[in-house]
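Allow me, if you will, to draw on your knowledge of protein folds for a short while. I have a record of one protein: its chain in single-letter code and its fold written as discrete structure tokens. Kindly check, if you would, that the fold set down in the tokens agrees with what the sequence suggests. Thank you for your consideration; the sequence and its tokens are set out here:
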Amino acid sequence: MANPLGIVHPALKERMQMMFYPSLCTIEQVTETQDSFGAVTVTWSTLADHAELRCRLAPNSANEIHDLQGTYVVHSWTIALMGFYPGVTAKMRALVDGARYEVETVQFDGNRQLTRLTVRIVE
């Protein structure tokens, strides 16, 4: 007789998901509006069905950049989202653990089970 609960017990599956994807991510999209004087106002809002997604955040690199305005550091990170989210684009941003990250690239695995974002913070 087959196990009616599947291979993994549902309670254990939830604990495993929390262990492998310990953070929550919210994807935000930009809306630009122009007033009668031509000034552009930028507002960010949560992308529908993309709030508090289970994720894992991992650092990639940090680069120090020098230009005429000064010196700043660009930190690159990877956000692995538990699930396939084809609506996420490089024009969006991600909010994880209170920090906002600009999305640079979006990748999907071959099985449509995982979404991987390369993001950055500029300081």
Notes: The first helix runs from residue 10 to 20.
